Fold this sequence. Notes:
Shape: elongated
Mean pLDDT: 85
Structural class: mainly alpha
Helix content: 55-70%
Strand content: under 5%
Largest sheet: none
Number of strands: 0
Amino acid sequence: MSNKKLTQSEVNDAHKLQTRSLKTPTDLTPKATKEVGAAMNAILADVFALYLKTKNFHWHVSGPHFRDYHLMLDE
C-alpha cells in the first residue's frame, strides 16, 4: 500500500464523485418516483414487522411438533 499524499484537487474530485446524485433513466416524474419510494418504504416496514413477528413466534413454539416447527420457522 502506498503512503502517497493526495492533493487537494484529488480530494475534491473524490468528494464530488461520492456525493453526486445518481441519474437513473426513468419514465417516471420526480413526484412519481417519490410516491413509489414512499410505497416501497411502507411495504418494507410491513415485511420487517412480519419477519420480527415470525422470529418471535419461532422462539415460543411448544408441543409435540416443536422440533419440526422450530426448524421450519428457522429457515
